[in-house]
Amino acid sequence: MTTTLDRPRTTHHAPSESPHPLLGTWQMTRLALRRDRIILPIWVLLIGLIPSAGANAYEELYKTPAERASLTAGAGANPSLSLLYGPPFDLSTAGGWTTWRYGTLIPLFLALACVFTVTRHTRQEEDTGRQELLSSTVLGRYAPLTAAVLVSGAASLVTGLLITAGMAGAKLPASGALAFGLGTALVGWVFTGVAAIAAQLAEYSRTANGIATAVLGVTFLFRAVGDSAKDIDWLSWLSPIGWGTQVRPFAQERWWVLLLLLAAAVVLGGIGYALLPRRDIGMGLYPARPGPAAAAETLRSPFALAWRLHRGALIGWGIGFALMGAMLGSLVAGIGDVVGDSEQTRQMLERMGGASGIEDAFLAAMTGMVGAVATMYAVQATLRMRSEEVALRVEPLLATRVGRLRWAGSHLVFALLGTAVLMAVAGLAMGLLHGLRISDVSGQVPAVLGASLAQLPAAWVVVAASVLLFAFLPKFATAAWAVAAFFVLLKVFGPVAQVSQAVLNISPFTHIPQLPSAEFTATPLLWLTGIAIVALAAGLARFRQRDIG
Q: Using an 8 Å Cβ cutoff, are 149 and 269 in contact?
């Protein structure tokens, strides 16, 4: 008699074939676009529309051939300006001036946007564990990276098309507008590839962002030194941003340089794809070293942990701000040669920084720009709270005797006081370099340092806005980047683009006394500080009540 147990069993095996490497790319792209539906369009619109606004301002700033000749002579004779803006190929036309004024800074901002976008949809997804969950379904190994590259590349292309359309709409030659737009877009593609590589090397998103932004900083430095020093101008050819300027829009365009950018983007992207299968999900090619079994005495408090988390970023930003302050300080003494006979440009600088002397007005404008850029660090430090929360590292801490306010306060110390440190570093460097050039170090250092630190209340308002987003709308906390970017672009480019005063007043930096050219007034600083305190209190009160996660 044969029983059921004696019968041979039939086993059904799951298919052993792996899914296609790109399976699910479209779905991942749609998910990335949905997650970035607010912040990415803001980046694209702000970056893409500014050059056309600057082009429209040229005719008003430099009306006569004599004013334009004075501008060309002054800019060409000042290496410090080439350090910041690049070589002035042709400043006699609106297109040439716009390319010189924005040809390095606009690609720099776009490259940052691309780095953050790629890291957000690759390495950050692995940090949170969502990528491993998605990969347990039928999802190709290359789909997440491909989706991130597609989104970043499309954003760069749309930005380039906006630049082209805007400048052509300003009645500039179409060929120059296209060269400027394509050059900017391709710089974005190059740093999309850089970010793709960084995402494979590092184990954490912050490290990947640090690697990619360090590469961006080094390439910008190569371009700056190469453009300002005639004997080593070959350094500029080691930088993708330098290639963007060497396209020479509106100055006998060199289209072949675009091929260098395209080739670099393809090679870097290919390296990122080649490195991807060499690591496991959630790991990097250079994994983080395991820590000791027991924490040191200096790491047994929320503030000590926050210092460990923030110190790398603070040191890196500090070095960058020292270099930026030194570079801006070296520009001040020669700003009169650049302005020349243009009364409109003088008025623009006075609008940015006050009416008491062209050099003081320029110093006031630059300290305001330093304050605006410092808000980017402030946002990064504030959003570290959200990163820790999403990575599920907050709940174990709060399960101990550490309270929510104590934990949040440890991070906000670096957001608030770290910003003050950066402004102080930039102010000291700027005042020192300017003082050395005019042989008045003792007079300029305290004046410029005070002007730089006066920007703090405005930066604290941005920190408070970031805390409100983190507390009330945690899923949209990254929109704080858009707030900071808006203020930076408004401060840096708004007066040049002749934006109305009503729009400029949206930025808290507009209400800061324009030191050292203007008389110090404490009232607006107290108002801004009060607004920041109230908003911070409201955000922290909400954070105490809401769910973690």
A: yes
Tell me the chain's radius of gyration from C-alpha atoms: 25
pLDDT in tens, 236-271: 898 999 898 899 998 888 999 999 999 999 999 999
The total number of residues shown for the chain amounts to 549
Residue 7 confidence (pLDDT) above 50: no
Q: Tens digits of per-residue pLDDT, 340-380?
A: 555 555 555 554 444 446 777 778 878 888 888 899 899 98
User: Residue 70 domain-assigned?
Assistant: yes
Picking from 238, 267, 287, the residue at the C-terminal end of a domain is: 287
What does the buried/exposed string (b/e) look like for 344-378 if buried means 16 or more CB atoms within 10 Å of the residue's CB?
bbbebbbbbbbbeebbbbbbbbbbbbbbbbbbbbb
Helix (H) or strand (E) holding 104: none
- Among candidate residues 225, 255, 287, the one where a domain is terminated: 287
| Prediction pTM value | 0.77
Rounded to whole angstroms, how far apart are CA atoms 123 and 412? 25
CA 152 to chain CA mean position, Å: 14
Same domain, 259 and 316: no
Give residue 80's domain range. 20-287
123 within some domain = yes
Does residue 304 have a pLDDT over 80? yes
> At 304, which helix (H) or strand (E)?
helix 302-332
Give the number of other CB atoms < 10 A from CB of residue 265: 24
Whether residues 332 and 208 fall in one domain: no
- Which of the two residues, 165 and 363, has the higher pLDDT score? 165
SS3 247: coil
For the chain, counts of helices (H) and of strands (E): 24, 0
Decide if 191 contacts 240 (C-beta within 8 A): yes
Residue 10 lies in a domain: no
176's tokens: 């120059």
Average pLDDT, the chain: 83
Same domain, 484 and 360: yes
pLDDT of residue 79: 67
CB-CB contact of 30 with 151 (8 Å)? no
What are the φ and ψ backbone dihedral angles of 88, each rounded to 5 degrees?
A: -85, 90
In a shared domain, residues 358 and 492: yes
Check whether residue 395 and residue 413 sit in a common domain.
yes
The rounded distance, in Å, linking the Cα atoms of 182 and 514 is 37
With residues binned 3-state (H G I as helix, E B as strand, rest as coil), the percentages for the chain, rounded to 5, are: 75, 0, 25
Euclidean distance between CA atoms 351 and 373, whole angstroms: 19
- How many distinct structural domains can be found in the chain? 2
Q: Are residues 302 and 203 in the same domain?
A: no
What distance in Å separates the CA atoms of residue 117 and residue 192, rounded to the nearest whole number? 8
Q: How far apart are CA 359 and CA 157, in angstroms?
A: 38
In-domain check, residue 376: yes
At residue 41's C-alpha, the angle toward residues 36 and 43, to 5°, is 100
C-alpha distances in Å from residue 242, one per residue of 28, 35, 104, 207 = 34, 33, 8, 26
Tell whether 108 and 151 lie within a shared domain.
yes
Question: Do 305 and 213 belong together in one domain?
Answer: no
Nearest alpha-carbon partner for 112 in 474, 385, 481, 476: 481
